[in-house]
Amino acid sequence: MAVVGNESAAVAGALTLLFYAEEVHLIADHLQVSDRLDYQIRESNANIHLGCRVKEIVGQENVEGLIMDNEHRLNVDGVFIEIGAKGAVELAATLGVALDDEKFRYIVTDKKQQTNVTGIYAAGDICGPPWQMAKAVGEGCVAGLSAAKYAKKLR
Predict the structure, then answer these.
(1) DSSP conformation class of 77
(2) Tag placement on the chain: N or C end, fewer CB within 10 Å?
(3) Predicted confidence (pLDDT) per residue in 91-114, tens digit
(4) Which of the following CATH numbers is that of domain 96-154: 3.40.720.10, 3.20.20.140, 3.50.50.60, 3.40.630.30?
(5) What pLDDT, in 10s, does the model give residues 113-125?
(6) pTM (2 d.p.)
């Protein structure tokens, strides 16, 4: 698998893919990430290709590889393009949303999935473990209903 991008969403995506894919390539012109994310990706098993750009995605019906701007070919089965997006946690922190006190990796919510910032709700993996679809779906339902109720009050 390959992830293309320079910012935290690309690095977080590459780190996440390491749990699922045999081999992960991160392709970036340069990295614009926090020191923590920079350290995590460099210490991981991801193959980092800095100073590179993707010239072409190869394959007819499925992704078979990438041709880099230096004409090198990477054989991959999939590609995620994460250009210009901030990671959810970084975006939340920028908005003033409270993160967990221990590692600052998860958004803190109440039982209605509301954060400390009025009108912002969160659900699923971004709220921390356990990593279960049922938990994410349930929290998503609660967050959606809570957000709808909040929006209705604003009318």
Answers:
(1) S
(2) C
(3) 888 889 999 888 888 999 999 999
(4) 3.50.50.60
(5) 999 999 999 999 9
(6) 0.57
* Structure-token pair, residue 149: 């109720």
Matching residue, tokens 């350290």: 39
Rounded distance between C-alpha atoms, residue 16 and residue 87, angstroms: 12
- Per-residue tokens: 106: 């998860």
Helix H or strand E segment including 35: helix 35-43
Q: What are the C-alpha distances in Å from 89 to residues 14, 25, 47, 107, 128?
A: 16, 22, 24, 7, 11
Architecture of the 2-81 domain? 3-Layer(bba) Sandwich (3.50)
Give Cα 119 distance to the centre of its chain: 22
Report how far residue 150's alpha carbon sits from residue 63's, in angstroms, rounded to the nearest whole number.
43
What residues are paired with 2 via a beta bridge?
25, 79
Q: Strand 2-4 relative to strand 25-28: parallel, antiparallel, unpaired?
A: parallel
Nearest Cα to Cα of residue 5 among 15, 128, 148: 15
Long-range contacts of range 64-70, CB-CB < 8 Å, 24 or more positions apart?
Answer: 66/2, 66/27, 68/27
Every domain of the chain with CATH number 3.50.50.60 lies at 2-81, 96-154
